[in-house]
């Protein structure tokens, strides 16, 4: 009887020790897992922070939405220009390019801005073509974020650099030296004006970018002179070069061209 009790006691102790060891072994994985997570986060941050300034390019419209239809479709202009600009930025080691949408793909304006924000963009340029009913309107204008935005001042500085460059390339400037503001009221009605402190919200892509951002209306796709100067292959390349130099001036890097 006494022997049986002692044996049972010994068996119980052995089982308890075994359970404790198993628990300790299981807990042993926790620091390994935490180290792996810290290393993965570090690698992600390192990758996100190398390769220079992160510039988001938004080729306006896309997918089922061709944008304005004039002598050409607006998306022909937006995608051709974005491709040239992407090429220039990728060749410059000071920059990392973030595309707000793939070529040919469609995404809403807000979604394109959110994609830039998720990938830590430091500057965003949204490329568009303008249109008018009668085809006589022409020239360049661009839209910074509204005064209420935290990044308004830098957005305006970038817009001024682009407008100066486009004027230098021969584009007539519309609005106040090529700069205008767009705002939507609660009913979704759009207002265009020269006042930075307009009430309401501006274009979705600028609202969601999370960084200084500008929307450029490169030229009128409904005007023959504009299309010849800034919407064909050569014209889109010319505009892309203006944008590229403006980006370099914004960040203070030496442009390659
Ligand atoms: Zn557009």
Q: Which ligands occur here?
A: zinc ion
Helix content: 40-55%
CATH topology name of the largest domain: Aminopeptidase
Global Rg = 28 Å
CATH H-level superfamily of the largest domain: Zn-dependent exopeptidases
Order of helices and strands: HHEHEHEEHEEHEHH
User: What portion of residues belong to β-strands?
Assistant: 15-25%
What is the structural class?
A: alpha/beta
- Regions with pLDDT < 50 over 5+ consecutive residues? none
CATH class term of the largest domain:
Alpha Beta
Second rung of CATH, namely the architecture of the largest domain: 3-Layer(aba) Sandwich
| Most strands sheet | 5 strands, mixed
Total helices: the number is 8
Number of domains: 2
Q: Which word captures the global form? A: elongated
Overall pLDDT, averaged?
A: 92
Description of the structure:
With 257 residues, the protein is α/β, with parallel strands linked by helices. It folds into 2 domains: 2-45; 52-251, 3-Layer(aba) Sandwich (Aminopeptidase), CATH 3.40.630. It has 8 helices and 7 strands. Helix 3 (74-91) packs across helix 8 (233-251), helix 5 crosses helix 8 and helix 7 (224-230) crosses helix 8 (233-251). The longest helix is centred in the first third of the chain and has 26 residues, at 2-27. The model has no long low-confidence stretch (mean pLDDT 92).
Task: Give the topology, please.
Blueprint: H1 2-27, H2 29-48, E1 53-59, H3 74-91, E2 95-99, H4 109-118, E3 123-130, E4 141-144, H5 152-168, E5 181-184, E6 190-193, H6 204-208, E7 213-220, H7 224-230, H8 233-251
Parallel strand pairs: 1-2, 1-3, 3-7
Antiparallel strand pairs: 4-7, 5-6
Helix pairs in contact: 3-8, 5-8, 7-8
This protein binds zinc ion.
């Amino acid at each position: 009887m006494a022997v049986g009790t002692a044996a049972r006691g010994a068996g119980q102790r052995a089982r308890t020790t075994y359970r404790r060891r198993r628990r300790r072994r299981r807990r042993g994985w926790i620091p390994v897992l935490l180290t792996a997570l810290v290393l993965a986060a570090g690698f992600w941050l390192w990758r996100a922070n190398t390769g220079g300034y992160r510039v988001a390019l938004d080729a306006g419209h896309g997918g089922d939405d061709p944008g304005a239809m004039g002598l050409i479709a607006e998306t022909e202009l937006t995608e051709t220009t974005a491709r040239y600009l992407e090429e220039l930025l990728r060749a410059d080691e000071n920059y990392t390019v973030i595309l707000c949408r793939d070529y040919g793909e469609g995404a809403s304006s807000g979604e394109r801005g959110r994609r830039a924000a998720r990938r830590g963009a430091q500057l965003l340029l949204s490329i568009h073509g303008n249109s008018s009913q009668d085809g006589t309107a022409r020239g360049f204008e661009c839209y910074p974020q509204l005064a209420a935005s935290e990044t308004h001042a830098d957005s305006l500085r970038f817009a001024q650099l682009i407008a100066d460059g486009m004027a230098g390339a021969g584009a007539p400037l519309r609005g106040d030296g090529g700069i205008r503001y767009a705002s939507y009221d609660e009913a979704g009605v759009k207002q265009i004006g020269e006042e930075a402190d307009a009430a309401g919200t501006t274009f979705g892509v600028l609202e969601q970018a999370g960084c200084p951002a500008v929307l450029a209306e490169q030229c009128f796709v409904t005007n023959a002179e504009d299309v010849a100067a800034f919407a064909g292959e050569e014209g889109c390349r010319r505009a892309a070069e203006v944008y590229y130099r403006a980006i370099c001036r914004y960040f203070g890097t030496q442009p390659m061209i």
